[in-house]
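Example complex used in Figure S2.
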Amino acid sequence: MIDYAALSALAAVIREGSFERAARALSVTPSAISQRIRLLEEKVGCTLVVRDQPCRPTETGRRLCQHMDRVRLLEQALQEALPALAPQGLARVTLPVAVNADSLATWIAPAIARFAAENPVLMDVAVDDQDHTTEWLRSGAVLAAVTASARPAAGCNSSPLGAMRYLAAASPGFMRRHFADGIGAGSLAKAPSLVFNTKDELQASWARRLCHRHVELPRHTLPSAHAFVTAALAGMGWGLHPEALIAPYLEDGTLVELVPDTPLDVPLYWQHARATSGLIDGLSREVLAAARAALLPP
Amino acid sequence: MIDYAALSALAAVIREGSFERAARALSVTPSAISQRIRLLEEKVGCTLVVRDQPCRPTETGRRLCQHMDRVRLLEQALQEALPALAPQGLARVTLPVAVNADSLATWIAPAIARFAAENPVLMDVAVDDQDHTTEWLRSGAVLAAVTASARPAAGCNSSPLGAMRYLAAASPGFMRRHFADGIGAGSLAKAPSLVFNTKDELQASWARRLCHRHVELPRHTLPSAHAFVTAALAGMGWGLHPEALIAPYLEDGTLVELVPDTPLDVPLYWQHARATSGLIDGLSREVLAAARAALLPP
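Predicted assembly (596 residues):
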């Protein structure tokens, strides 16, 4: 049997970021934490934690933490069935999930919040591009994710959520300054675009579809969905925005579409680990219902 | 003299994340990029790029990219003085800066956007905790940052911005459910808190000040300033929110302060590289003016 005291110490170090804080969280001494992890590393035969600020798991360390998360979910289900096991009520389990920033800024945050308010969980939400959240699932860092990929990761189920609609928009002043002579490969190669980060391909995809070839876009990088809108309103650049976030600005004319009727629809999927846990199922129901109300039908 | 063609190739690989995209951006072949970087690595005597997805700079690679950024800023200043050097107008230079998420969600985004709309720059904004943005400056990854540290990093100037006021708040339903018997170490140890990420110490600091000792808080992790507010409104947890973001909800009663008149004020500083560039000075002026209007006076 695996040494679960050691595994708890490992999970705490990863969650807390340091041996000292993990010790505090588990009410033991830092040297106890350190010793448990060293013994576990000797047994497994490799390093499990990169001792950095903050501490990070190695590939194997992450697999072990994932195992721990799943065991805790199973325990939770067991305790629901056998309340005598947990006389003081259910302990909260941590549910790690990965979502894309635009979903978190719009439709999914209320769903996650509602679920968390009504269940004995602690949500650990990571944000990454929808093309990269599958990696988080595959590596076992999370138990569920909003992804751009329909194909289920190993050990996961995949359900279509619908498509998120993006509109290319800018301020009227920006349009006059940069696109007075129309929008094409020439003007797009000069007008600053907004990108969320280096993984954000939306602007490039939209430009490629419009011009039928790759256009090298000048780029401002701004990793916040709301700051993206602020930047567009101030005339900093053009970019693809979730329709839900900019609808009021299109309405009152403070933002305009670059080319009317050229939305970019990004289909999203909900993937979750096939664990025997009612909690994951409950979260999935909440997320799917919110997606049905907010996204374009799959 | 340093081989600036090779340095441009290196900077493009880091910016674009891959050799293929760097090649496209510079209109050369991927093998030309690869060869330039290999020669530079041989000359410097160490690896400059970790070939991963995306490509990342090594410590030395980052130092070289920083040098490149600074040379470009100097070129820009020179071209302003000698317009004949740049007959087609100024090329846009990239200004890498690091800010804390709450500043980006509130007062600094409009300032950066205004500055970028009026100057020949491309902003590259990184987000990190205010206690960690100094690292970005120190490593040379950025030229300016909003930090919690007054002490200037090497080669930098530091100016006080004022303090960002945070209020501990939750929904009335959450208050009834978790704090019906008052707020103290006992109830805080059970009621779920919201934290932005593992670096976010605000909730723990506030609880420590209130209870005069460390309290181990159950934590939901939610890395988005706006989702934080959504989560609070839905009763998911209590947390420290920027006053500017939650003022309307406190007004209409959908959020309430946990303990009235217990704000947490976080002093912020603007640090920037002492480069002889009018662009950095211009950005600093814009940022300091916005801080004066939005933050508590230093």
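The first strand of chain A starts at residue 49 and ends at 50. The mean pLDDT of chain A is 90.
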